[in-house]
Amino acid sequence: MKQPRSKHKYVPIGYKLMLTYIFFIIIPVSVIGFVSHSMYNDSLREHTSSNIKGTLLQIRDNIDYKMGEVTRISTQLYSDYDFYRNLRSYEEGWENYDRMSMKVLPKLDVAIQSTGMRIGMSLFLKNESIPEIYSNSLEGYLDNSSFYHLYHMNRIEGKSWYYDFPTEKYAETMKWWQIERDVENNRISLLRRLIDTYDPLVPKEIGFLRINVGIPDLFNSVNYTKIGKGSILILKNEFGRTMYQSGELPEHYTNEAELNKDYLTISETVTVSNQAWQLNALVPITILEQDAVKVRLFIILMCLICCVVFSFVGIFISRYFSIRINKFVYVLNAYREGDLHKRISYRGKDEFSQIATALNDMGENIDMLIKEVYLTQLQKKEAELEILQSQINPHFLYNTLSSIIQLAKFGQNEKLQQMVLELAKFYRLTLNEGRTMIPVPTEIEQANAYLEIQKIKYGERLEVMFDFDTEIWPYETIKLILQPFIENVLKHAWCGDHIHLRIVGRKEGNNILFRIIDDGIGMRQERIDQIFDPKGHTNTGYGVRNVDQRIKLQYGSEYGVTIFSRVGIGTSVQILIPANKGKRGIRSNVVHDEKGS
């Protein structure tokens, strides 16, 4: 019979949460939009600055290279001892003409032709025995080809730029300077003394070198188009004077502060002959703002769309959610993690009270079912272990009894007595008062008892070596995991009339590893695969699978038996179990590293 439905009215939880839901959506979306816009602006400026900085570095390197070429020409003449020797010679007549035409002038020709720039070189000499050489076409400055002039020093000794030239430091003193008509001709000069080091203690000035280069040739890489439309590139010397400018700066700017409002300024230092020049790039802010405005409008539009959509979605779906649902989620998570003792205490007359009651009942029922299933599985596992252990092939007992009869028949009473004692010892250890787990020394002692019986049977044809680490003595194992593999060796591994068997036990980390190694006939990989996955060969490797299944049932799938074998070489069986200590005291009569025959 259905219970009458309660007519108690309540405000749906969805409507209670709707306003809060909308409030907490609008604020994060607005904040995200603002932060995204700010981050984009910063990223755009940083990216632009980085790109322009890279371009300025390329321009600087180009300027360094060209000015370095001119410096290299001056250094070539400055450090040429043979050149100095000819300049200070006062021979006259034919010798003087021969010296100049064969030794001095060719060096000047090579120097001015060694770069792709139009170079004007003026050499001022104190040796007045050398005749002056110069042209009359504006001193060659307006010619399209490179040139050189030879003058006497008295032409410049009264010049202010020569008087103000820095004190000489050998191989270091040089200066880029616009002198004479350089500004008028849009050129710049590299100035350098010529020093004779014939007497190193008293360096002597024998002349002065001026290398004149066109500014457009030297700074043709300073091009505003590499930065962007509307940009300006300005190269200033160490005194702040503009040496070269690419791009036009509007005339209405009255000061630098006003200029910085509309332009982003990026600077790079150009070092020439110990002179620090400044390369400035002025990038219009409008170029950056064009992309920023598009992104700003896009972010604002997306924020508005998100707010509207989330608000409408909140009206329809928020009614189905509430803070109370977290209680159910918490309990369900506890159930999923295995804690079935959690319960929900809920007061109310809505649908959540019914869910809470059903969930509490479900937890209680599941807890009872798990306990029942756990006990059933535990009992099943113990039963499977007992069944597997009871299925050990009893033919060993039949074979041993047959051997005892043969010994009695031939009157070998001493061997008969020893075999009976070892058989009794073997079954005493095997029965072990019905216990499945035994100490490791007991398992080894049991294997040794089995081998003692076989030694009586096979005599010197069987050689056995035990190699056990005493570190494994305190631990326990499932019984009868070594004997089946020893039995397999004696049944199937004979290669001729002699066999050697080695039994090893080691502790490796938190595990114990047993190895049974023989030098018998070995087997192929197909045979090993049939042992662990018999399919149609159900009788193949029954004892091996028996041990492997018992270990996995007791300890888990990561433990068990592994076989390695090579035909004609032998077989190695590895048995891996965890190193678990038993509850009883452990004793052992097994001898470590024992050899038997």
UniProtKB/TrEMBL annotation:
Superkingdom of the organism of origin: Bacteria
Membrane topology summary: Multi-pass membrane protein
Compartments, as annotated in UniProt: Cell membrane
Single GO MF descriptor: kinase activity
Transmembrane portions of the chain: 21-40, 297-317
EC number: 2.7.13.3
Record's catalysed reaction(s): ATP + protein L-histidine = ADP + protein N-phospho-L-histidine
SMART domains reported for this sequence: HAMP, HATPase_c
InterPro entries, sorted: Bact_2-comp_sensor_kinase, HAMP_dom, HATPase_C_sf, HATPase_dom, His_kinase_dom, Sig_transdc_His_kin_internal
PROSITE patterns, A to Z: HAMP, HIS_KIN
Enzyme class: transferase
Domain HAMP positions: 319-371
Keyword presence, Lyase: no
Domain Histidine kinase: 478-581
Keyword annotations of the record: ATP-binding, Cell membrane, Kinase, Membrane, Nucleotide-binding, Phosphoprotein, Transferase, Transmembrane, Transmembrane helix, Two-component regulatory system
UniProt cross-references to PANTHER family, sorted A to Z: SENSOR HISTIDINE KINASE YPDA, SENSOR PROTEIN KINASE HPTS
Protein name (database record): histidine kinase
Source species taxonomy: Bacteria, Bacillati, Bacillota, Bacilli, Bacillales
